[in-house]
């Protein structure tokens, strides 16, 4: 990663992880205020804005600092959507079927990650 040491690379990846964690906490608060649909819309819009902002850092000569704002904004959006996804998977599901709903959501998420590669 641009000649970074292992420690520098790990710290660079820590930033988006913290942004996602912040987004999940924000998503939890939003869920009770605006509902799941509104939360999904907000999460996708925030995530898309962050992804668009990252485009400025895609130049080979660009440094991590140009990617950072987009990574943070995109991460917050991802965290909001992540929380909303799990709420959607569990909503309307009987208590004794929650494990199946969770398994299906996890499978769909992982299948999506594999398809993106």
A few lines on this structure:
Helices cover 81% and strands 0% of the residues. With 117 residues, it is an all-alpha fold.
Structure description:
The protein is an all-alpha fold and 117 residues long. The chain has one domain. It is built from three helices and no strands. α1 crosses α2 and α2 runs antiparallel to α3. The longest helix has 49 residues.
Residue-averaged pLDDT, rounded? 86
N- to C-terminal distance? 19 Å
Strand content: under 5%
SSE pattern? HHH
The major sheet is characterized as: none
Radius of gyration: 16 Å
SS-based structural class?
mainly alpha
Helical proportion? over 70%
Q: Determine the number of helices (DSSP H or I, runs of at least 4 residues).
A: 3
Q: Got a strand count? A: 0
Low-confidence stretches: none
Overall number of structural domains: 1
Tell me the overall shape: elongated
Subcellular location: Cell membrane
Keywords: Cell membrane, Membrane, Transmembrane, Transmembrane helix, Transport
Transmembrane segments: 6-26, 38-58, 64-88
InterPro entries: MFS (IPR011701), MFS_dom (IPR020846), MFS_trans_sf (IPR036259)
């Amino acid at each position: 990663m641009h000649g970074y040491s292992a420690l520098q690379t790990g710290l660079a990846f820590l930033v988006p992880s913290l942004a996602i964690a912040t987004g999940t906490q924000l998503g939890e608060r939003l869920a009770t205020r605006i509902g799941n649909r509104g939360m999904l819309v907000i999460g996708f819009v925030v995530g898309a804005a962050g992804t668009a902002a990252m485009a400025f850092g895609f130049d080979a000569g660009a440094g991590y600092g140009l990617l950072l704002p987009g990574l943070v904004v995109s991460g917050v959006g991802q965290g909001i959507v992540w929380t909303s996804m799990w709420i959607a998977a569990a909503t309307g599901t009987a208590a004794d079927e929650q494990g199946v709903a969770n398994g299906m959501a996890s499978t769909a998420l992982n299948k999506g990650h594999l398809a993106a590669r």
